[in-house]
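Input chain follows. Return structure tokens only.
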Amino acid sequence: MHGWHNRRNSGAWHPGKTLSIGESMELILWRHADAEDGMNDMARKLTAKGHKQAEKMAEWLRDHVTQPYRVVASPAVRARETADYLAAQYNIEPLIAPGCSAASILTAAGWPDAKGTVIIVGHQPALGAAAAFLLAGQEMPWSIKKSAIWWLSNRVRLGEHQTVLRCSLTSDML
């Protein structure tokens, strides 16, 4: 097994949730790297290109994300193989398997209450829909390229909750 399973029910995200002043969280949405085609979606492995993409992005993340951080990966093989490049141990979360919702992504991350940095390794279209919800206030079909990250922060300024896009990066930019 590639890590431990830890479904977090307390502090789960819901649409009316608000932050207290002084709380913050870093959320990195990382789409799995390029994977082979196949009939069994959960068993699809990374391609040679995907391994290179995941390795490059993991190296960038290690250089730019302050430790400690928590990694949460989909149980799909391609997501776990992507996460393997960044962390020796991580949570495997069935809640964010292929076909999940944006709300499932945010719940698994503990948004917005988790402290520190949470890196979600998951799938389209849920990652794009979660990013759209956090930045535009509604789920939309935003696309996140394979092995790309969207780094988001939350904060409270003058009593107002804000989500900030800190970085959007594709592996071919590295």
